[in-house]
Design goal:
The chain is α+β, with helices and mostly antiparallel strands and about 80 residues long. The protein has one domain. The chain is built from 2 helices and 2 strands, in the order ααββ. It starts with 5 loop residues before the first helix and ends with a strand.
């Protein structure tokens, strides 16, 4: 089982998601502030990144490979 401390998880999220996209704490505060206008009691931003790599090898020779990255943010 891979257990990650809160600080480590937060730092990884900051590096992989926020810093990579040029998003600052101020940007997040601004976005959440816009969401909280009106009759909204609570809101959050959901960030996600997924990486996948695959290789096909036949008789010790690489016959194909693929790499994909999917990332985005959602509002709840």
């Amino acid at each position: 089982m891979n257990v990650m401390s809160h600080g480590t998880a937060l730092e990884m999220a900051r590096t992989e998601l926020l810093d990579a996209a040029g998003i600052t704490d101020r940007d997040l505060e601004h976005a959440l502030g816009l969401l909280m206008r009106g009759d909204v009691d609570n809101a959050d931003l959901y960030f996600q990144i997924a990486r996948q790599e695959s290789w096909s090898i036949e008789d010790g020779i690489v016959k194909g490979g693929a790499y994909s990255i999917e990332q985005g943010v959602g509002v709840r």
